[in-house]
Design brief:
Helices cover about 40% and strands about 15% of the residues. The model has no long low-confidence stretch (mean pLDDT about 90). It is of the alpha/beta class and about 240 residues long. GO terms for molecular function: glycosyltransferase activity.
Length: about 240
């Protein structure tokens, strides 16, 4: 049986990018090296205030609309709930002409060499933040799971659907990738990271950029705290059972 790939794209106020992303993704999917592979594209509009929904609908197989903004993790979970594929590929909505390059992430899964593949993106063209969020995420993932990652914040990742569902529901908000990496490593999923020449919208050293990274820092911190509490609870339960 040919593999079935579900591409899940959470989107919020992306009317300026989503059509370009989907068009280039479809063009590349049509040229895929694996004849007969079944592919579906699912976009989850997470309560957008613009015309993201209208821009996306001609290019997708399934289009889900949240009535209000629920967060990236919740949007990804809505996509998973509707996905029929045995392989899942999560992509950001602002990849535009580079979106199709992310399809390389499914190759290690097709070869049964990995359960999850994460994209390592090229360095940004301009220096934006000070690396605080990425550093926090890398250290937190290492301490809580033992996994050493180079791409702790990457939203571009492929995963086997059966292994993902073993992990339970995805964490809400922008800490979803950090929590997912911790959960996957703890459960013994085979994880690989690949250099993929994907680009997306960059934030600068302006008020908007600092606000974005501040929210991201808070979301990552909460994700790490939740996974630390889970580990502490497991230790407590283990100690109690040995009494």
């Amino acid at each position: 049986m040919k593999p079935y790939l579900s591409i899940i794209i959470p989107a919020w106020n992306e009317e300026g990018s989503i059509e370009h992303t989907l068009r280039h993704l479809q063009d590349q999917a049509d040229l895929m090296y694996n004849p007969g592979m079944r592919i579906e594209i699912i976009v989850v509009d997470d309560g957008s205030c613009d015309k993201t929904y209208e821009a996306a609908w001609p290019w997708v197989d399934k289009l889900i609309k949240h009535k209000r903004r629920c967060g990236k993790g919740a949007a990804m979970q809505s996509g998973v709930a509707e996905a029929r594929g045995d392989l899942l590929l999560f992509l950001d909505a602002d990849l535009r002409a580079t979106a199709g390059r992310a399809l390389v992430l499914i190759e290690p899964l097709l070869r049964h060499e990995a359960d999850m593949a994460i994209a390592k993106l090229p360095p940004p063209h301009t220096k934006a933040g000070f690396g605080l969020v990425k550093g926090l995420a890398r250290r937190g993932i290492r301490r809580l799971s033992g996994y050493e990652t180079e791409a702790p914040l990457s939203g571009q990742r492929a995963v086997r659907a059966d292994r993902l569902r073993e992990l339970g529901e995805l964490r809400r908000g922008f800490g979803v990738e950090v929590a997912l990496t911790i959960d996957a490593a703890r459960r013994g999923l085979r994880i690989v990271e690949l250099d993929v020449p994907i680009t997306h919208r960059e934030t600068g050293r302006d008020w908007h950029g600092f606000m974005h990274r501040g929210k991201q820092f808070a979301a990552v911190s909460l994700a790490l705290l939740s996974r630390w509490k889970e580990r502490k609870q497991l230790w407590y339960s283990s100690d109690r059972s040995s009494i």
